[in-house]
Amino acid sequence: AVAAGDILSMACARDGLHVIKTEAYGPQIRGGESSCTVRISANDIHAQADLIDALVVFNWADFARFASELTLAPDALILHEANDTPPENLAPQAQVIGVPFTTTARESGAPSGKNILGIGMIAAILGLPIESIRAAIQRRFAKKTAAVIEGNLKVFDKGIELAALVDAPSKKLQYTAGEPRLFMSGNEASAVAAIEAGCRFFAGYPITPSSEILHFLSEWLPRIGGSCLQTEDELAAIGAVVGGSFAGVKSMTATSGPGLSLMSEMLGLASIAEIPAVVVNVQRGGPSTGIPTKSEQSDLMHSVFGGHGDMPRAVISVCDIEDSFHATVDAFNIAEEFQLPVIVLSDQSIGQSKQTLAANVLVHDVVDRRVATPEELKDFKRYLDTPTGISPVSTPGMSGGMFQTNGLEHDEKGRPSAMYSVHERMNEKRYRKLDALAKKYPLFRRYGATKPEVGILCWGSTTGAVREAVDKLSAEGIAVAAFVPRLLMPLPAAEVQAFIDSCREVVITELSYAKQFTQYLRTVVDLPRNHTHVFARSGGKALGVREIIDQVRSVLPKVADVEIPEGVLA
Amino acid sequence: AVAAGDILSMACARDGLHVIKTEAYGPQIRGGESSCTVRISANDIHAQADLIDALVVFNWADFARFASELTLAPDALILHEANDTPPENLAPQAQVIGVPFTTTARESGAPSGKNILGIGMIAAILGLPIESIRAAIQRRFAKKTAAVIEGNLKVFDKGIELAALVDAPSKKLQYTAGEPRLFMSGNEASAVAAIEAGCRFFAGYPITPSSEILHFLSEWLPRIGGSCLQTEDELAAIGAVVGGSFAGVKSMTATSGPGLSLMSEMLGLASIAEIPAVVVNVQRGGPSTGIPTKSEQSDLMHSVFGGHGDMPRAVISVCDIEDSFHATVDAFNIAEEFQLPVIVLSDQSIGQSKQTLAANVLVHDVVDRRVATPEELKDFKRYLDTPTGISPVSTPGMSGGMFQTNGLEHDEKGRPSAMYSVHERMNEKRYRKLDALAKKYPLFRRYGATKPEVGILCWGSTTGAVREAVDKLSAEGIAVAAFVPRLLMPLPAAEVQAFIDSCREVVITELSYAKQFTQYLRTVVDLPRNHTHVFARSGGKALGVREIIDQVRSVLPKVADVEIPEGVLA
Amino acid sequence: MSACYTPQTYKNDLKPVWCPGCGDFGVLNSLYKALADTKCEPHDTVVVSGIGCSSRLPGYVETYGFNSLHGRALPIATGVKLASPGLNVIAVGGDGDGIAIGGNHFLHTARRNTDLTYIMMDNEIYGLTKGQAAPTTPIGDKTKSTIYGNPEAGVDPCALAISFGASWVARGFSGDVKGTTELMRLAIEHKGFSFLNIISPCVTWRGDDQHKEIRAKVRPLPADHDNNSRESALRLTNENGIVTTGVLYQNSQPTLVDEILDIRWKAQGDKQPPTKKDMLRQFAPAF
Amino acid sequence: MSACYTPQTYKNDLKPVWCPGCGDFGVLNSLYKALADTKCEPHDTVVVSGIGCSSRLPGYVETYGFNSLHGRALPIATGVKLASPGLNVIAVGGDGDGIAIGGNHFLHTARRNTDLTYIMMDNEIYGLTKGQAAPTTPIGDKTKSTIYGNPEAGVDPCALAISFGASWVARGFSGDVKGTTELMRLAIEHKGFSFLNIISPCVTWRGDDQHKEIRAKVRPLPADHDNNSRESALRLTNENGIVTTGVLYQNSQPTLVDEILDIRWKAQGDKQPPTKKDMLRQFAPAF
Ligand SMILES: Cc1ncc(C[n+]2csc(CCOP(=O)(O)OP(=O)(O)O)c2C)c(N)n1
Ligand SMILES: Cc1ncc(C[n+]2csc(CCOP(=O)(O)OP(=O)(O)O)c2C)c(N)n1
Ligand code: SF4
Ligand code: SF4
Ligand SMILES: [Mg+2]
Ligand SMILES: [Mg+2]
């Protein structure tokens, strides 16, 4: 199934279509059940599909495992292995067609080609780019024998042929081919961004769903004179990153919740020693080992508040696959400019899903570390207390820049001190950097009405669905808007508050049972007591566009209520 | 200096006086400078002294290191080594007397007895229990030769003799001897509490300022059939605690910030696997290694929100040395009853200071784990979803109670599941326990006026000073009250909100530069926008009674302002 | 202990998630047999693991089981044993779990001669995370994280265990269920820390032939091997082209539980346990 | 590298916090001398430590210095070296720092033959936290945390280093500044991971006589010692009543930096480095 999805997606990307592909697996590493959903559109899309228009099932038992996460369109077209009888009423006007996938594939000379047969039919029925798919099949099996390639192409044509028997004109996709697009995952985009930002040292320990970043950088960093170290654990990974950065080289690690928890102490060291460090944290279901293969937004509080002591750090969230690139470069820029640890919060649904992107969007300005001037190196104070809190840096190898630092409280020269006066002053200095940072990077997105009756607050991977929900609701004439902070620590508080104050009803939607986003917002902004509606649930299932629309609808009556008395008063 | 403080304190405790003793050291482990302050009173006291009435200085250079933390009373009595000239104007009406401590001590036959000479004079001048001090000196040197004991007693008498030359009648302490009191530190009280609560396994890794707990339990647990393991690090310490508790034995570890950060991941496992675990975290200056020997309240956010994923846990704070005992027993009770990790938040100023306590206060009810009934063991569900969320437990060794658990999301039987529906349900179940917990343990303290104009919110070790400030202000006729939540997670939100709503002006005072307590309060209660006054500063220096009084005074005018219009309206 | 236990006794009805052909199936079957052979009372037995494909094992054994955190099986197992010394405690996990992230606990748990059995399923790879190099992966091997070839020389878990001070060290091969069962029996019966490294092929990330290749390399202990000598034992580790199975090393020395009991004796001997009053005396100024 | 450096060059004006008589003073003085002897360019040198009394050392050396976290000196030092291979990297710390909490990093940093020098100041105790047992504390010793006597046998850091795969292992005694300086010189000059265990008495928690006692135990290497043999090297560890100083073991093998450079070569050879376009090609459906 997954292979077929790749072929289909790549082919559509070649013809400039917009594609979002997600995969799901059972607990088994190999030979287990898997599912792959591909959303294809002629226009820009921001979320995986809510409703499935066309479904290919080789085994209904496997389908059952994913059924709870797959909703069929009322008139869904369903192709299934003929000799495996489908369950009752899958969808009201569903068109259910049994196809002898296995046997046909075998007869057409590609025993394991049933999925190719499937995409042949789907492609013909939906009117997808046949030629590009052929090319994609050839590329896919390039390393195999000519016979294999031939066989699969034959099976594909066979599929097109069988499709003729299916009558579903309504399902045809209308589009005109455009420029080829890139097709990549959020993790790949983060890795590419690291290299773009100038990262030349990566240290990491594998963990689902972030390992693709390690894989990519272990291949590419050596090609550009960088290095990659797979460490013994996350304690060593973040330690090596702090070391590499101390040595003057932009450094990064990538992990997921369990690893992030283990990095807590070292991030505190980076904070007090003021050493840039970038951690890409790809969230998964928690707590503990939780659900490693699924998405959740429950590492937020740990990211913004985790670690003992008063520990300034920056946290930047990732709104979509393309944003994985921008957020990661931003993270390096912020880390280098403000000399602190920066956590990039992505999640499984962004990190491991793939989407089509215009090649030219993967560009972003790069900022470098503020190196000490010769003047500053005279009686050098590594932790000079400046108006912005940002001090001049020297790095090993710079003559005259020598200093001795530590994780103890220290004075401007970096010398340990247990005095209250020094501690208070240096806390002030370190936190002052966050003010400068907030001013320079008020990162957020805003969608929808300028005078919203309902305002939605969300963050991260739910942004795409929220954005589509806002579009749909606006189309219905409902005045709704969404505010999405991208910089989470420090939060652009003034902007968030202004947005809240501009709405009648506030909807907060998040994938954290404990309402982490809502609680975090409360620490910095005021939410109207009886006009704030929190929709928080566990992760493990994507937040759907219809789900958000229902959330907004459920608060609309209140808006009405509010209107009447106002009318009276007027 | 420190030895003298011990002798003085123990002697006063013997005569039923109230004593609070704090110590401070330079960075050097041995042979460095040190200071010891002892507050002695005939009545109950709750904080170390703001003003020093009598000071003994052997070396002014050393004094300088601590000067910023020691404020002298205007009419302070100052005894100092004669041949070391004191700095200018130490205090307006100070009585500064040079005493040839070293030589006199040598001549009186106790070369290193200058501190005994000092307490001899102080005791006589302040009218402290001479006989008890003699006894204390004898006990102190019990292991030494008779000559040494004799010498020190002679030096002590010499001190009394010299005191006759000093004229300071006003300084005499008026009291009548009472029942002897215990004299112990917060760390010692926590350790005693663990044994009282039934803890029979302790695993820990040394760290300042918590190590005394390890020391005490490594001595006492073996005596009562328990065991103590000094592990290779904190990851192993909390791991062993989770293992010991899983095996059915109440288990605990103790640490400070850096160790707590390292325990983040394992606490998440205890949370999802629902295994009781108690962690006593004795806070010190942060972030990172920070200021290991001084107090701060900056591990709050990590304690309540630290760790990846949605991770229910309980956090209970310690208000004073006696409370170290009660909070620790409460922690075990809560951990066992609700099957979750519990963090006890103490700090250096409680853990390592010593205070006199009435022996009879060290008692507290003990709760045990709810073991599965024979009925429940039929088709046993370890994670049975009950109305309270609390499930029946079995422990290894119980026949028929076998189950297999894990840190993955799991169903009622503990079997791994990646399904959203299971995840949502089990999150609900686990968080439901916090509701039951909040209902049963609405732990807080309240001091002062019932109808306060100014209400103070604080937590932990600042409680004592706040309490004394409230008393002093009330005595001046100012309507002030203080609310101190003892249970921090889950916070007794209704009670806190009710208190806030009952005050005109709210003062929040805390020792965290980042305002952690204030931010945390905001996540659960509403603070009046223009009537909330936050006084947050770094730790490293105790919060003084006068400091709090000034904070309250600074907001009083506002109260007046408010009154006038009200009068008009009436 | 009851005498009528069969491998079935220890099976539960949860289906392993392992890939078809995974070596861990063999380890699991050997464990069922070994538990029966040693007549381990199921409810007095605790199987603790970390995280990894192999660490899923406790979920399939009808005793008390705990699939815990990556790398932390040994500290948890230690806690179980010290808190309740009467239990049989078996820790299991993967090579990455035990030697990468868990390496420090391996060292200290062995060094203390902690009374438990530690079974490492060694597939020379990180299986669960889909095929990155482990500390055991041979130098030069191409994996997901080392596409230019693994730059690091793989370590031999048995060599480490011996150097760490383990009092019983053996190697088995999951393809040889009978031999592995026997080694497990000995491991469980050993008093103190017993370490059993079982070569357990990962057919998915090490290739379907790993099984065959290893079978070809497996050798029994040399007849003249003196397994009381660390030196000779170490010579049977880090071998080139062959894999020696059997009990490489063993000695008998006081265990951690022995020490704990000894400390209790030193602390209290046969005196009445102290009362709370005794405990508080040091804080009382009663002189 | 300039040639005119003296021990003074590496001294700064910060006064050590160590107790009078602490062995670490001797280590510091030896390091000043060894840095001068090896003509280490101060600004190309980085001294990294963990946390402990001994770990305060980098604060007193006029090079780049980093007194980091308890147990993490080696990962940080590794990062420094890999990011900037031209630097001389020296990691220092205590026995607790390196073998208790830092044990796993010690294993893996040694195993990778990471290009750095690791100096362990071994006082058989936790000094900074005021005297608890360390993994190196002899069995039976009474400490703050073992008042009934230490139940665990102390480990020999050199034995561990050799088993971990360190390519250069030596032992010194802080009381012998001359000998220690010479060993430091060799350690710094060794290509790869060099481990130097220096017995450095803690007069405060191990008693004022520890110095004398050790001096009495110190022995030079046996004349016939073959320090290319792990076996013979191991025989000079865990000795009873004597402490053998000198270079116990050494070999020469590819270092981690060698491997990194080799990987770069395999990845790119002498081809032009890839452009962004090259990197994005795999995501482009250009077929
Ligand atoms: C703290 C933490 N880091 C990383 C991971 C991801 N992870 C899970 S299993 C594993 C390694 C698996 O290899 P191994 O221990 O050899 O077990 P195998 O799957 O090969 O049996 C890793 C890195 C994790 N779960 N937790
Ligand atoms: C994570 C963490 N745990 C514990 C500590 C407390 N601590 C500081 S130094 C130290 C051990 C000191 O012993 P060693 O490393 O041998 O150095 P020494 O003081 O003996 O030179 C400990 C346990 C800490 N700073 N950080
Ligand atoms: S991935 Fe490898 S180790 Fe994991 S189950 Fe499959 S075969 Fe076994
Ligand atoms: S405590 Fe021991 S190790 Fe620390 S400085 Fe003093 S003598 Fe040295
Ligand atoms: Mg493995
Ligand atoms: Mg030490």
Question: What keyword list fits this structure?
Answer:
heterotetramer; A: 570 residues; alpha/beta; five-stranded mixed β-sheet; 40% helix; globular; disordered C terminus; C: 287 residues; seven-stranded mixed β-sheet; 33% helix; 15% strand; binds thiamine diphosphate
Largest sheet of chain C: 7 strands, mixed
What strand order characterises the main sheet of chain C? 2-1-3-4-6-5-9
Strand order of the largest sheet of chain A: 8-7-9-10-12-11-18
What class, by secondary structure content of chain A?
A: alpha/beta
| Number of helices, counting only DSSP H or I runs of 4 residues or more of chain C | 10
| Major interchain interface with per-chain residue totals | A-B, 70 and 70 residues
Average pLDDT of chain A: 94
**Ions and ligands:** thiamine diphosphate, iron/sulfur cluster, magnesium ion
What is the tally of helical segments of chain A?
20
Q: What Rg of chain C is obtained from the alpha carbons, in whole angstroms?
A: 20 Å
Secondary-structure-based class of chain C equals alpha/beta
Poorly predicted spans of chain C = none
Net shape of chain A: globular
Distance between the termini of chain A: 61 Å
Share of helix of chain A, binned: 40-55%
**Uncertain segments of chain A:** 562-570
Description:
The complex is a heterotetramer, with 2 copies of chain A (570 residues) and 2 copies of chain C (287 residues). Chain A contains 20 helices and 20 strands. Chain A is of the alpha/beta class and 570 residues long. A 7-stranded mixed β-sheet of chain A has the order 8-7-9-10-12-11-18, with helices on both faces. In chain A, strands 15-17-16-19-20 form a 5-stranded mixed β-sheet, with helices on both faces. Chain A has a 4-stranded antiparallel β-sheet with strand order 2-1-13-6. In chain A, helix 19 (516-524) links the parallel strand 19 and strand 20 (532-536). The longest helix of chain A has 25 residues, at 545-569. The relative contact order of chain A is 0.09. Residues 562-570 of chain A have low confidence and may be disordered. Chain C is built from 10 helices and 9 strands. In chain C, the strands form 2 sheets. Chain C has a 7-stranded mixed β-sheet, with helices on both faces. Chain C has a two-stranded parallel sheet with strand order 7-8. Chain C is globular. The termini of chain C are far apart. Chains A and B meet through helix 10, helix 11, helix 12, helix 16 and helix 19 of A and helix 10, helix 11, helix 12, helix 16 and helix 19 of B. The complex binds thiamine diphosphate (2 copies), iron/sulfur cluster (SF4) (2 copies) and magnesium ion (2 copies).
